[in-house]
Amino acid sequence: MLELIWLIPLIPLCSSLLLMLTAGRLPRLLIGYLGVGSVGIAALLTLAAGIHFMANPEPFELTLWTWMQVGNFAPGVAFYFDGLTLVMMSVITGVGFLIHLFSTEFMEKDTSYARYFAYLNMFVAAMLILVMADNLLLLYLGWEGVGVCSYLLVGFWYQNSANGQSARKAFIVTRIGDTAMALGLFLLFTELGTLDIQGMVAMANETWQVGDSIPLIACLLLLGGAVGKSAQLPLHTWLPDAMAGPTPVSALIHAATMVTAGVYLIARTHGLFLLAPTAMMVVAIIGIATSLMAAFTALMQSDIKRILAYSTISQIGYMFLALGVGAWTAGIFHLMTHAFFKALLFLGSGAIIHCLHHEHNIFKMGGLRRKMPVTFWSFMIGSAALAALPMTSGFFSKDQILLEAYQLPGMGPWLWLGGLLGALLTAIYSFRLVFVVFFGKANTEPDRDTGWRMAVPLTVLCALSLIGGYFIIPVEAVFPAASGEHPAHWVEYVSISVPLIGLLLAYLIFHSRQLRVDGLVGSRVGQLLRRFWFSGWGIDWLYDRLFVRPYYELSGMLKSEPVDVIYGLIVAINQTLNQWLSEAQTGRMRWYIASMVFGLVVLISLALQISPEVL
Amino acid sequence: MVMVNLILILLVGGVLALLSERLDENMPRKVALGVVVVDLLYFLNHLLAMPELNQLQAPLASDPSTWLMHFRADWIPAFGVSIELALDGISMLMVLLTLVLGAVAVSASWTDVTVRRGFFEANLLWTLAGVLGVFMALDLFLFFLFWEVMLIPMYFLIAIWGHENRGYAAMKFFIFTQASGLLMLVSILTLVAVNHSATGQWSFSYFALLNTPMAETTAHWLMVGFFIAFVVKLPVFPFHTWLPDAHTQAPTAGSVILAGILLKTGAYGLIRFAVPLFPDAAMDFSYVAMVLGAAGVVYGAVLAFAQTDFKRLIAYSSVSHMGFVLLGVYAWNELALQGAVMQMVAHGFSTAALFMIAGSLQERLHTRDMREMGGLWHYMPRMGAVAMFFVVASLGLPGLGNFVAEFLVLLGLFKVDPWMTAIAALGLITGAAYSLLLMQRSFQGEPNPKLADHGLIDFGGREMLTMAVMMVALIGLGIYPQPVLDLAQPVLQSLLEVTP
Fold it and tell me: How high is the pLDDT of residue A478?
């Protein structure tokens, strides 16, 4: 059975190609069946593969062909299937299927229905290749492939130039990370002679000692790719803008799957990172810093999708924190639960946007609780899981991360404190969203409620967000076992109670309004902070001044081609000489005779000077 | 004899195309297409009959019979000049590329040439003949002759059928190539003289001139003569300034051939002559060459980003991409060289296609200025989708040929000089910047209603077929490049043995 796993990415790929080649000439219903059905079949096949794997949990390798062979460089088009792959594939095809189904209603009226599903199917195929690849080069293929699909989908409504701008920003910023990652691949291959992940990690452990500098550099370069794709500091700025794409795209690509590719990459190469404790520390610090930065920013946003985007950045920060402290399983677990509840929240926001005439501003919503009950409950459950309220899926995964972070010798308690602050902020901003949008008085009337193709995915994701915490992911053979020790009970109690405090604060501030923060916000410092956080800590502004504008200026300066000036000079000299000499060509006989005589005199006198005996 | 026929078919075909205009003014393009296709089929027919292709061996410099094909006939025996042609894996690839892109070029100018159509097609075919000669000649005198033969018809193509500033562009192209060609001629003649004084025999044969003993300084100067001729053609920063003008002003078919094939003669010359004839000198010089290559990668990309002219942007992207070829050649290990060869092929297809799109736009909109475009996807979705394909190919999307090329070059280069690799890798980022900007300004954005007045017609069957050929080629190179790698491998192996 596992010999057939190559079909799983192939089916969505074929569907995508078919949709592209027929260029929208198929009937709409068929387009929907192709787009949704191909991912559905992939999900069923993944399920079947999962059942086989669970019966006999041995990693499975499958080489389709040797991609290229030059000397000893021979990466294959080859897949590696283990528990981690299975988790990732299940998320991609499962959540992916639900989002595809949701899309059929969301994109119903769009003229480019086929193009949409062509891109979305292509994305699923590329993402599957990314997580199934057995070597870093094939992984890189998937990595870039999802990047291009993300670019195409963010800029899906291409007639608005702002969308194109966001799409290009997304691609170029992640490409900066990708380029670092490519250099990492060069380094690893040059040093170890293979890019095959399992072989490479084994070789690395034979070749290097813990703390050597080459694995550190290699890990930092790979981390460059990871922070780009997973929108972590300092390469996170593309994600909020990427919300320009259709909302189901944001749910699939910019919440559930692609943005977690960086987490997957580090988890997959954890054997390498364990050789570089400094790199792990960097991962943890990036994680916690990003998580807090994004949480503060999310608190200030008014665009529903931007709130969720910053929240995604923040939650992936938690995953990085987990990876950095060696809580591999917890990191992947959070990746999975986050995929459930964040996809749910994005789809929920999609439903609102769909039914509210493309309204994005939460302060223009309000009172939607009664009119959109399915969406309301989706948001309640999704936000509860996001805030990690007890018994939701998010609680189990985030709690695990915080506890393991606490146990890290040295910095552990500090990371834990940071994580707690983040959890508090998360609870506040997620319930701020719920209270503002669903309670209070209605500002905009929805013109419809969700149809079944939206309601079903929402309901299923609600269920997953609730019970996902009880899933056991089959990765115990992939990662080194956790220590198994438990910190003191008070640590656990604090971790549990912080989100509840956040919920209470959100209630008091945004719903019952018993806690007035106007004075605080209205003060001078409050205003400054608000603007600073609203702009995402001014990082976009900074990059604009540091990189974007100088690059425009540089290219504008060089546009006139300074090198050509040199050649122009040569031409000018020649032309001047030509002019001078053609002055002599007057066409007058007298002038020619006179100059000949003059020349003769000069020549003869010169000859006499040199050798008088000539005459 | 096959190789001679390949060239003769094109030369005679050119004359036929010229004459056929008297029958019917639509005749020349059909004749030209027919001639190129016949030539291609003739070549393929011979290749398929060659058992050696399954069992490739390294072509030895000492023994021409180890090459896939070899032909020799006396021409001017007194000076040791002969008609000597030979074919190994790399030249075979280049000949195939030339003929396929030759057909693409004819198709690209199917409708946009309206005056002196017979002479146009004739020049096209004669350029191709010259290029084939360059890729196969192994007598240096003959090589130089072909080097000139491909130049003159190309000059006419630009000067007669080019765009608004064609006179300037054609002259610039001619002078740059001619001046640098002259340096090569001097180098060739000196090399032959040096060889004569060492062996007492006059010979222009590649096989005889390899391993010519000479003083270190002589070798350095001669190598520089060859180097400059080839890097001007490639082109390499800072000798590239003829290219944006020539490519922009040339008619579509001219741009396709210039970018797709003519640039590759420079790369081919470096691999075939500049390094093997003077291995020690070339290795001493490799750092300089790599610096120029990396500079070209970045410089070309930055300038491409600044352009507003659709064709000029693509022209500068060639400068950037050819920088990778130079890096690959002078990193001089198997990975990097394979990357350079792959880049020659892949860039041939991707750029030819982009120039064809540029030509189609110019034909429809009568402008190349991207500020007057925008939203073209709306009017011409097929062309937009095709353009998107080649844009992502050119920015190095894995799964397409250009990625394999650039990855191998950088991987090979990393072993030699990691810092240089890091600088060249900036090309991946800047490449994305200009490529996507091209797409944004022309096909994306708000549809410009003024454009609709031009009666924009989307790509039809002829264009889609031509594009499909190149798309399939790039996908093939991207997911299974092995046939190309296998063809080049034995050649590179014997080349790598030449150098210390």
Answer: 84
Q: Please tell me the least confidently modeled range out of A442-451, B15-24, B178-187.
A: A442-451
- pLDDT, position B462: 87
Q: Give pLDDT tens digits for B310-368.
A: 999 999 999 999 999 999 999 999 999 999 999 999 999 999 999 999 998 888 888 88
State the Cα–Cα distance between residues A406 and A419, nearest whole angstrom. 10
Distance of CA A94 to the CA centre of its chain: 20
Distance between CA B140 and CA B204 in Å, rounded?
Answer: 5
So what's the ipTM on this one?
A: 0.92
Q: How remote is the C-alpha of A604 from its chain's centroid?
A: 85
| Rounded Cα–Cα distance for residues B375 and B112 (Å) | 23
Taking a C-beta distance cutoff of 8 angstroms, is the pair B105, B253 a contact?
yes
| Strand pairing category for A60-66 and B81-87 | unpaired
Is the Cβ–Cβ distance between B65 and B232 less than 8 Å?
A: no
Q: Which of A424-428, A493-497, B32-36, B120-124 has the weakest average pLDDT?
A: A493-497
Which residue's entry shows tokens 């988890």?
Answer: A267
Q: Which of A68, A127, A137, A154 to mutate to test the interface with B (most CBs of B within 10 A)?
A: A68
Q: Is A392 helix (H, G, I), strand (E, B) or coil?
A: coil
B209 pLDDT tier (thresholds 50, 70, 90): confident
Beta-bridge partner residues of A63: A78
Q: With an 8 Å Cβ cutoff, is B244 touching chain A?
A: yes
Please give the pLDDT value at position A286: 94
Determine the Cα–Cα distance for residues A336 and A330; give it in Å rounded to an integer: 10
- Tell me which amino acid residue B167 is: G
Q: Which residues of A touch B485 (CB under 8 A)?
A: 68-70
For the four alpha carbons of A408, A409, A411 and A414, in that order, the dihedral sign comes to positive
% of chain B residues with pLDDT over 70: 100
Which parts of chain A register pLDDT below 70? 483-484, 614-615
Question: A328-355 vs A304-324: helix axis angle to the nearest 10?
Answer: 180
Looking at residue A28, its pLDDT comes to 86
Q: In the prediction, which pLDDT does A564 show?
A: 84
Q: Is B12 exposed, middle or buried (0-12, 13-18, 19+ CB in 10 A)?
A: middle
Closest CB to A71 among B334, B398, B410: B334
Q: What's the mean pLDDT in B483-491?
A: 90
**Are B347 and B318 in contact, with CB atoms under 8 Å apart?**
yes
Contact B397 A144 (CB under 8 A): yes
User: Higher-confidence residue: A108 or B297?
Assistant: B297
Neighbouring CB atoms inside 10 A of A488's CB total 9
Can you tell me the distance from the alpha carbon of A558 to that of B297, in angstroms, rounded to the nearest whole number? 15
Average pLDDT, chain B: 90
The residue ranges of every structural domain in chain B are 290-500
Using alpha carbons, select from A2, A19, A8 the residue that is nearest to residue A53.
A2
- 3-class SS string, B336-382: HHHHHHHHHHHHHHHHHHHHHHHHHHHHHHCCCEHHHCCCHHHHCHH
How confident is the model at residue A211, as a pLDDT?
Answer: 84
With beta carbons less than 8 A apart as the criterion, state whether A440 and A355 touch.
no
Chain A hits for B493, CB-CB cut-off 8 Å, are none
Q: Is B366 left (phi over 0), alpha (psi -120 to 50) or beta?
A: left
Query: The pTM is what?
Result: 0.92
* Helices assigned H by DSSP within A133-160: 136-154
Asked if the C-beta of A500 comes within 8 angstroms of chain B's C-beta atoms, the answer is no
Q: In the structure encoding, which two tokens stand for residue A301, read together?
A: 């946003």
B236 contacts B295 by C-beta, under 8 angstroms? no
Shortest Cα distance, chain A CAs vs residue B362, angstroms: 22
